[in-house]
Amino acid sequence: MADSAQRLPQEAGNGDDGDNRRRTFLKGALAAVPGALFLGCDTARLVPAAAAAALTGEGYQPTYFTPAEWAFVNAATDRLIPSNDDGPGALDAHVPEFIDRQMETEYGHGGFWYLQGPFHPEADFTLGYQLRYSPRDLYRAAIVDINGWSQKTHGKDFAALADAEKDKTLSQLQHGEIALPNVKASEFFIQLLANTKEGYFADPMYGGNRDMAAWKMIGFPGARADFADWASKPGQVYPLGPVSIRGEKA
Amino acid sequence: MATRMKPADVVVVGLGWTGSIMSIELAREGLNVVALERGKNRDTSPDFTYPKAADELKYGIRGDMFRRLSLETVTVRHGVDDLAVPYRQYNAFLLPDGVGGAGLHWNGQIFRPSPEDLKIRTRMIERYGANFIPDGMTIQDYDVTYDELEPYFDRFEYLNGSSGQAGNLNGVAAPGGNPFEGRRSRPYPTPPVADTYAAILFAKAAKELGYHPYPQPSANCSQPYTNFYGVRLGPCNLCGFCERFGCFLYSKGSPQTTILPALYSMPNFELRAQSHVTRINLDSTGKRAVGVTYVDPSGAELFQPAEMVILSSFQTNNVRMMLLSGIGKPYDPKTGTGVIGKNFAYQMMSATSVFYDKDVAINPFIGAGSGGSQIVDEFNSDHFDHGPLGFVGGGYIIGGQTGGRPIQQLATPPGAPSWGAAWKRAAKDSYLHTTNVVAHGSVMSYRDAYLDLDPTYRDSLGMPLLRMTFDWHDNEYRMTRYVTDRALEIVGKMKPKAHSTLIRQPGDHFNVRQYQTTHVTGGVITGADPNTSALNRYLQSWDVPNLFVPGASAFPQNIGYNPTGLVGALAYFAVDAIKAKYLKNPGPLVPA
Amino acid sequence: MKRRLTPGRVVAGLIGLGVVGVGGAWLIAVLFGGIGGDRSAKLVQPIDQKLIARGAYVAVLGDCSACHTAPGGKAYAGDLPIATPIGAVYTSNITPDEQTGIGRYSYGDFERAVRRGLRPDGSALYPAMPFPSYARMTDADVQALYAYFTRGVQPVAQANRRSDIPWPLSMRWPLSYWRWLFAPTPASTSPASETTDAGADALLARGAYLVEGPAHCGACHTPRGLGLQEKALTAQDGAAYLSGGVVNNFVASDLRGDAVTGLGGWSEDDIVEFLRTGRNHNDAAFGGMTDVVSHSTQFMTNEDLRAIAQFLKSLPGEQGEARFAYKPAAATALAAGVVSTRGALDYLNSCAACHRSTGLGYAETFPALAGNPVVNDADPSSLINIVLNGGSMARTAKAPTRFTMPPFADRLSDQEVADIVTFIRSSWGNNASAVDAAQVAKLRQALNAPPPAAER
Hints:
The structure holds three protein chains of three kinds. Chain B is of the alpha/beta class. Helices cover 22% and strands 19% of the residues of chain B.
């Protein structure tokens, strides 16, 4: 998987125009994930509009993730929270963008975690996370492992699997039924699912929860944080839509 | 060689609840007080004003208020012969950091213990016989009674403008309050916060079973309130961003909302933030503290001389500082001797999510950290006959919710998967119609549950981490099963569509991945005997009389209630003794 | 911290006048500019602790530290920048340091500076120094003040900083004309103004003395004329006195008896409480008044606060306003989540948590908007300003909690601010004019407030 580990070329000069950047990205993306876009029987469903936009560079361009990683994160989060009539999917909500942006934060770099060794990944599950990886390193290591397993098992990257195969793989990761060389599968799944739900429900200023659609779906009023008038009306339906920290209204 | 600072009368290590209480009370005596706080200074403005306070990701999930574990954590193991590994990510409990400490990001649950909680060993033996206490359980009495502490519970409640409904006013039952509570000398300073709908449903069900639900005692003011330092608090608006968050309405009691505005105005008080105390320095006799050594934000090592040291950091760090400073004999679980690190305890919770149909608008986002919930206290402390049940301790049952923050607090009904289309459907359908019933239980102290220094892992300054040796015991499994079954009877009467319960079953290890409470206790415990306790009744070190160690580290075992009411009362009790006796005649306040 | 004071514009106008002025004007100013007072006057009484203590209190009344102590600086060592459109001027060192302060001032030098706006060399002070008000101070108070500043204050060696105003605008002689035109000549004062124990009239007189003299309330609260002079310096000068001014993009509100936009709805107790704690049951100090309360009024005696309150309540209203009558319609709608009125949802989202759907806030905590004089002022500048930039209450000994309103500039667009302000000004019985986005945009620019995050 040498190609997937390659970083997206970053333009350094000030003179780069958008077209140039997009072309460079497209080239990298196509080289890295040939299957993700064009293989499979039902491409339209495989890559919903939001993902297609992201992958073709029209929307957000990842800062941290490589094209292969980006394809994985898009494909995996899309299955963790699929798009349907109930409400937004992870891609509609820009969850991958959220996760990519988180990778560049103090959190992504492991600033919130104790990451000194020695490491005992064999320790009992109840003693908590015992891997050596910061969040960003965990994604990097795990995606290589998972795509490697997927190539070996299915002959293609995870992102190129059919939905049912993706779901089965995710379930196996969740339950530790896939042995990965570097990363404990269940541990990565915990991380991925947590970040996915974060990106789905966090304030939109972090890049996910686009248009507060996930809040609207469940009925959470977001950052309104004032219910003094409603304590005296127990059991009444709350009528107002959400507001975000930056003041977006719905 | 550490730079020597200008001597102070008092150096306070950690400016959370107890450090703030000690600082203002001693500064008001005219003493020069220097507070060293390893974390940042922070205040309502500019740090958590609206709307930035309402940020679940930053505060609720990432834990911006907590100490970065990359700087310092604890290691955990279940048994004395196990290998301890670091607590690398926050889940089970939260370590505070910065001015205000845990008093800034608590929920404001401001219970008093029951009178018998303070004399638990004597009470168990008197009522159930000496054999009732199982082998290995090392519970001890406090050397102070509820009646002695009553003025100080009162003081801490009036500091906070606490809201609630008295149940026992000077021995006379008061309707609507907790009939099991100890005598209180006057009503709560502010009336209860309005019940949420879920609390109303819970209380109705509890009453049907013959229980006496009452509004949760809360340091969320129900109306604006000015305390005895002249500091004014605002009213709680049930914003749903309480635990883990700062209060943008100045309503939740915290050092910032009750003490610091007055303290900061005093010229004889100085705060040095980002000043990390690494040890308490003793003189050559080892019987007197001469000050503390600390590292300032630039990394320079400084020595702050002082006549008196108040070690008022969080429970875990208090224990660690004692061990790192070589004060008191470290506890040895093999022999059961020694005192520092002894009797580490925690709490044991069960949580039941209660799911209603779509016609029941719970509106879970309407919630206060503590106000607005209802409590059933029938199965806490020794409010019931433990004899046939065979366990010590108990817990309260609480109905209601603190908020509906969707990343952390969204629950899906039993059978729903944790991801995929079915999860999304379940989240969509249940969010607005779900609440909680929690059994909030005690944990006793045991010979094999203790704290010491880890031999391997170090903090960012290179000092050993604290090692936590802890697992559940049969007594607690029995306690939580019993109290949870009572809770589930109430849940049944609430007639929900479904419910699901998280409970620790016999054989389950202590799991650091599940949030339980942040109420870790013990390790520098108070008692009557220097051979079995580190502190006398005034939280004064038996070994170093000019050192006082307030905080939950002083608890000989844990209670079913949230600890902060007792933490605050003990701090006021201690500082009153310092003011009335110690300052006139510095030395041991209790003969050893 | 920089303060923008209207006197800066005074300087600009006058300097302009001066630059085009004829040589004769210059000559007259130079020859006669220093006239007034007696440089050689000496303090006859001995300086004792009692006099120094009295002087310290007079310094509180005059709020000297507000300008002469820079934040984080040594007491009375000056160096506080006061921004003017032609460059900052810096307040002077008034500690008794002989080289850099006023250590070599005779009493006469001191008196001329305080009451006449003159430097020892006879040139004029910038009228950022409120000498037109201090002109009314009694000899006894000025003598005590001299005792305090020469013997009660620690000397600090800190050289005065030259103004940033470039030559020729920095020439001071034109200021002499302003002084002649607009600053009164100190007169001997009646003893009644120095005491409060001669009954109600004495209290009123004391109040007038404090407000018109040392406390220099009119510097902000009285509108200014074309020369940027205060249109009235005393109650006797007419209805303009304390009828409201504009300072630093805030409205310094009407302190006369106008029922809604002035103090007509406030009792004397309300005024006393406000000045002592920076807040009262329905309002709170903000903007520059926060400093006035922090440095000055909170330390005034009860009797003096009472005197000020009585004097202010003696000033009749001029606007013919009817008493404020609360109307519950907006509160009822908001509490039910009905947000059809423009601005109502924005109000719920950004304001109601503190000020409540009732618009009544909470006493001494979150100010009421219903019936609030500032909210109802014809000029919405203060309201817009505080929505954009927020504000903190004073930390006072009696009320140490600094309840703070955060800035909302980064959350609300110009239109949203306009909608909110208009909603507030027309709800709960408030009845003030609508505000449009252009007004907000102008103020956002003037205040250097950020654009909303959603638009960045």
